[in-house]
Write a structure and sequence with these properties.
The protein has about 270 residues and is of the alpha/beta class. The chain has helices spanning about 5-15, 50-55, 80-90, 100-105, 110-115, 155-165, 195-200, 215-220, 230-250, and strands at about 1-5, 25-30, 35, 40-45, 60-65, 95-100, 120-130, 140-155, 170-175, 180-190, 205-210, 225-230, 255. About 35% of the residues lie in helices and about 25% in strands.
């Protein structure tokens, strides 16, 4: 069997630790590196439902995109939902790993996947990163992505394509009421802070999962259309894709995406 340490080495090559934002809490969050791994469950967020699924399925490792223990804690007890969940995982010897912004910014990470899925060409990072693991001149490493549509499209037509590609139950459009778009920027999750970057790059449209109310007004002032497609919708598919890629890399393991995870928002 594979040890957790060996798996972590592979994950570090795919999602280098130095791609993580300084504020983030990534890597191995629960577990012993010397433990053996036979099964893995991937998810976007480690919720009690996902934890219960992991215990029921007797998995050895959960790869959760969003970190648990994000803020410093002084107690881990059954008095809190997070504490009860963590105690159950520890008692079941289930390790937890979070890639988060390492995965967002990796060359084949979430934002790159989204940009390719939406058909962008000449894809580059919104905020390129140069680190020891990333040589200078690698355009597809860093936070967010932007690129060109092969042929300009009407904003409404492309927005409907985004909705279909991400299987979003609904999307929200605001900002500049443009007729056509040709240059598009995208940043998964909650990433309204990239709006100004998108404007400086000359993008017509900026896509993210969710943003503050005032970001819509800012987009209008900057002359950029803003499309919100849902936090879950912009990130969950990449965790399903991770399960597929890991299964191909480690056929001796049992790896799947959580079946019990769902969007916390109900669309009516």
């Amino acid at each position: 069997m594979l040890t957790l340490a060996e798996l972590l080495q592979y994950l570090d090559t795919q999602y280098p630790p130095d791609l993580a934002e300084s504020w983030d809490n990534v890597g191995l969050l629960v577990g012993r590196e010397e433990s053996q791994i036979g099964s893995i469950l991937t998810c976007l967020t480690l919720t009690p439902d996902v934890a219960a699924e992991a215990v029921r399925e007797k998995v050895d490792l959960i790869i959760a995109h969003h970190p648990i223990l994000f803020r410093p804690v002084q107690k881990i007890t059954s008095a809190t939902v997070e504490g009860e969940m963590l105690l159950g995982l520890i008692e079941s010897r289930i390790a937890v790993f979070s890639p988060h912004t390492r995965y967002d910014s990796a060359p084949a990470g979430i934002n790159q996947q989204l940009a390719e899925q939406l058909g962008l060409t000449s894809i580059r990072s919104i905020r390129p990163i140069e680190t020891e693991s990333v040589p200078a001149g690698v355009n597809q490493t860093g936070a967010g992505r932007w690129g060109q549509l092969p042929v300009p499209q009407s904003l409404e037509k492309f927005a409907l394509k985004v909705k279909e590609c991400l299987q979003a139950p609904a999307i929200s459009l605001s900002g500049a009421p443009l007729d056509q778009v040709s240059k598009v920027a995208i940043a998964c999750g909650s990433a309204g802070e990239f709006l100004q970057d998108a404007a400086l790059l000359g993008c017509d449209l900026f896509i993210t999962g969710e943003a503050r109310f005032h970001t819509a007004f800012e987009a209008e002032q900057l002359g950029v259309a803003l499309l919100l497609a849902g936090h879950y919708q912009t990130e969950r598919p990449a965790m399903e894709a991770m399960a597929v890629r890991l299964q191909e890399q480690f056929p001796q393991l049992s790896i799947k995406a959580s079946q019990d995870e769902s969007d916390p928002f109900r669309w009516i």
